[in-house]
Design a protein that fits this description.
Layout: H1 2-7, E1 12-15, E2 18-21, E3 32-35, H2 48-59, E4 66-70, H3 76-83, E5 88-93, H4 96-108, E6 114-118, E7 129-135, H5 138-150, E8 152-164, H6 168-177, E9 180-188, E10 191-198
Parallel strand pairs: 2-3, 4-5, 4-7, 5-6, 7-8
Antiparallel strand pairs: 1-2, 8-10, 9-10
Amino acid sequence: WNEEWEKNYDPVEINQSCTIRAPFHKASNKSYDIIIKPEMSFGTGHHETTQLMIDFLFEQNLENKKICDVGCGTGVLSIIAEKRGAKKIDAVDIDVVCYDSTIDNIKRNDCKKINTKQSSSDGLIGNNYDIILSNITLNNLKSNFENFKKISNQSTILIISGFYKNDLNKVNLMLKKFEFELLDYKIKNNWVASRYYCS
């Protein structure tokens, strides 16, 4: 069964310089050849929301930034953030399977700047981040908005995904209450990723 499944599991070409693949795929010749072991964790690169988040990571200046990844899943966003120059990344997930998966994938990609914790965003309080990443379900996102504000500086960038286009206005209004202003957004098959700054 596993062999059959692996045969039908393709690498994901994110852009001209980034591929996400499983350990059983051949290495790509891309600058960013990201290896993610597919398990019961979200973030293999196949879902639209992961692809949209990564698009933003390639647009955003990450050099020497302090970043957190809330609901890190496989750790794919944290791994790309490190390879794009972030100086420190705190990756948290409440699910132990995701926590373990992130630790494995950090080693697999030879990352050194990612700290992983099995925790909600509560475990990040007391820190401030230049960039906050979160690709989780809408209900879970909403329950984190207050914490996102608590861990922000005045110029923090928040990049989120995990909801549909018709929820974008509602999300924008809720985030405005926490002083996050919409910068821009991307849509793929009705899924949205949006980017905000903390005013």
